[in-house]
Amino acid sequence: GRLLEGDSLELSCSAGPAKVILEPNQVVVLDCNLAPVEQVINITWKKNGLPLVEEEHLHVLPNGSLFISSQAVAKDSKYPERAGAEGNYSCVSHSSLGAVTSQTAAVRFSTLSRFFQQPESQTVEENGMARFECRIEGLPSPVITWEKDHEAVPAEPRFITLPNGVLQIVDVQESDAGAYHCVATNAARKRYSNDAVLSVLKGSQPAGGDVTIVAAPENTTVVAGESVVMECMAAADPTPFVSWIRQDGKPVSTDVIVLGRTNLLIPSSQPHHSGVYVCRANKPQTRQFVTAAAELRVLATPSISQAPETISRTRASTARFVCKAEGEPAPTIHWLKNGKAILSNGRVKVQNSGSLVINQIGLEDAGYYQCVAENSLGMACATAKLSVIVREGLPSAPKKVSAVSLSSTTVLVSWERPEYNSEQIIGFSLHYQRAVGTDNVEYQFAVNNDTTELQVKDLEPNTNYVFYVVAYSQLGASRTSSSIVVQTLEDVPSAAPQLSLSSMTPSDIRVTWLPLPPELSNGKITKYKIDYCTLKEADQVTSIEVGGNETQITLYSLHPNKVYKVRIAASTSVGYGAPSEWTQHRTPDRDNQTHVPFAPTELKVRAKMESLLITWQPPANHAQISGYKLYYREVGPEESSNESPLDGAEDESWDVGPIKLKKKVKQYELTQLAPGKLYEVKLVAFNKHEDGYAAVWKGKTEKAPAAAVDPLVQKGPPLPPVQVYAESNSSTSIWLRWKKPDFTTVKIVNYTVRFSPWGLKNASLVTYYTSSDEDILISGLKPYTRYEFAVQSNGVGIDGPFGSVVERFTLPDRPSTPPSDLRLHPLNPYAVQVHWCPPAEPNGIIVEYLILYNANNTQPDDMWTLLTREGNIFSTEVHGLESDTRYFFKMGAKTVVGSGPYSNVKDVHTLREKLSDVLDIHSVTGIIVGVCLGLLCILFCMCASFRNSKQREALPGLDSQAAGNHTYYHRSRQGVAAPSATSDSHELESLMSPLPEDAPMPLGDITELTEVHSLIHTSLPEDIMHGKRK
């Protein structure tokens, strides 16, 4: 506002701007009063964002205020007496806790420009209407008055002076004729416009006719608080009736004043006055009317509608400062900490709603935080203080944090427990974010107390990440550990370069491409591979490799007037990524090359989200061309491999074209395209005879970013699901179930499931599924294989982190393959040694091996001999075979589910039998023992018989019983029927003299005797027995 001599302006951090307009020879003192700051140490000043350079008329007073005089001089200034003081001033108040900066005060000098619209002379009929207008700008806004013949215009209702510099005269009289001019006055000076003469035609009457609007309202933009006029003059006979309405149907505000019965004046405009106003002029006693409309836009400087509050938080907790601002245009919000700008990155995040969130706060986060709202009209700010509370007895920071990259997307982070109060630790938190860039998101994982390492997955390939760890006890959190930076390994490129093709001669194709951006290359590009072939010989592909720093190559020795297909793939140290789509190009015709323009060279296309920026260079025979024709079309997935419409005659095959361009044009942008779609572009040069050969390009526009989220409702990424459980369903499928997180700040629309074989290091083999339910059946898995799963919650346009990994084996199945490496080796004529290795795909734990063998391989399996061996045995001997015989063997493996397929049949020939094999040591030993026993038996019988005969001779005689017995014995030898063994034994016993009682017969002798007696009666022939009797 306008200051009086010696006035001062207090700068603070509050709602609303500060503006000072200095008049000549005026001074102003700017006071720095930042209320939240306690125990101010010193105050510094800035001018236009730079430290203030003091001079005589611009210096800091002992109390910290700034003295500004309009006589401050700036060197090399057009107005040296003034320009040195103009500028934007702000102060910074420093204390032991931090610093606070003030709002900006704009210091300007009063000025008044020349008139840029002068009133014009005019002639009107008596009782008609006259209107004069002049326009001028000044600071402060000038007051415009009107004079007639150098005197103020009469104070009559017929003379209507509007604040915007318009003079309206209604019902003009002959006395109104004269010279009119306007006078503009402000604090700087006073200016007079040129004279405009009003002539009045006496005695004439306005002709009756249709109603017309002589002066219609104009679209107007003002700053809140300023006055505004909506003018409307209508002419007709009789005088028309003028009314105003708002187009949106709302009533016109009651604070709006009507000037001169037809104009609207808003003395102090406010945002609610904005809208479209409609002036309607009706001809009395008729239904005839006309309308005119204009929009009023009221701008407003920023104001803080919700200021942040001073808070105290414990270490490692989260601090949130909420700040909301209003203004027109809508202000942007940024934050300062201790007077310096805060960048949204990692754990310090400025949300789209304008709120500031600080995670894992530490002592270094204490200080003053300021919310600054700015738009084109000015700024407003609010201040809050953050205090960090640290309790006694907390653990010290974790030690020796290290990180090792395991793959292109996985890093293993490990650490050691804190040195102090380690026994009180209940857990750790691991934090990480990108090491380079702004607006990065910091992620964190909770880790159990007994764990000092964690695998962090889902990282970007070939990217630097920074990690740190925090320990927690019941009392609170430790300081953060030292940070460690590690780079993930390279991976194959995520995409292929986009090709442009052209020909300089009928036998070559020039291939050009643009390097891949870092987010797609996934590492350093080491080489490119270009594949090409003719369209009709798609199976005869030729490949050429070039270095990773190349961006073009020319293919030579091609056939004229042939359609070729070309594609490219990029490679890092890991390998090649997926190739590009095939791009087709027809080489020029050799016969017509003198007349047909060659294709434009160096065709390059920069793909954006909704546009393609195309650049090129003229062809070699550019003197013959008249201009260029540009075609493009969207390529569907089903036709990406089909032949493209390369000939210019097939214009109907292209979505758009031809777009004719002049000869000198070398750049064109195609707009209003769809994001993430495959497009093909064709550019041809033409002359007055015909179109030339085409340069073609095929590639995709950039993908659209995630759907925008209402900044007022965005709360951050959703938490991962809880109670994730994997259950084996079959040998090839697993059920994965989970529950919605207990607490979430956004609406979860679906879930992403990530799974891969356990321990996988190649990120390109990881599979992702999306599920809108809280379970999913994942099929197509390998039997008895360990898989790891993780689930992610997805909101609208925002994805949360993946949760903890769960692992599960699929169920076992029958082996898919037989035992491998079956080997047979003959041991002797009757045995074979069998060796084997486990199946390549056992699909479970092998519990048993099955060995089938047969000398006839044409017989069915159930007629082969089966041997089984335990699952942990890999060799065995097969005995009981026949010598010099060809045997056939095959093997199978068995799990708890069942047997797998048998191996291919292998044969082995047993060894030929030798004499030493027939009479081996065991056989010879048996024969010798048998012969010796027989001889001993014979000898014993002879001795027993001789002894019996001696005893009979020694007896005196035989009684009748004895004789009878002897006679009976003699008959028994000659008779046909032999008596029982019992009678025979009795006879022998009666012939033998009894032994003394004190010398019993050994048990062995009894046995031998029984054996000899048995041999005599059963083994010896009867003639031999008679011979012995004789």
From TrEMBL:
Give the subcellular location: Cell membrane
Q: How does the protein's chain sit in the membrane according to the entry? A: Single-pass type I membrane protein
Chief place of localization: membrane
Q: Where is this region: Disordered?
A: 577-596, 973-1003
Biased composition (Basic and acidic residues) is annotated at: 583-593
An example GO biological process term is:
cell-cell adhesion
Q: Which spans are transmembrane here?
A: 924-946
Full protein name: IGDC4 protein
Biological source species: Geococcyx californianus
